[in-house]
Amino acid sequence: MNDKGNCESCGRKIQNTVFDKCMYCGEVLPKHQIFSENEKETILANQKQAELDEAKVSKSKSNNHFGRDGGVFYLGGDSGGSCD
Ligand SMILES: [Zn+2]
User: How far apart are the CA of 32 and the centre of ligand 1, in A?
Assistant: First the structure.
């Protein structure tokens, strides 16, 4: 994992961030605690993936709900039609 240690100003853990500052106190991080362009790309990709996963979960949830209701409704309509 990308562990940059603690902020020299406030002592809190450096988070995975694409900013070159401490997210807690705003202190500009020393060079060895700033994430490289490569690492920033990984962080951004991970964040994007997490957002996609979240969207997928909520989407499949509503899809399941809709499909269930639709299936029950369709079955009822079909049997009524063959009776005709
Ligand atoms: Zn800090």
Answer: 15
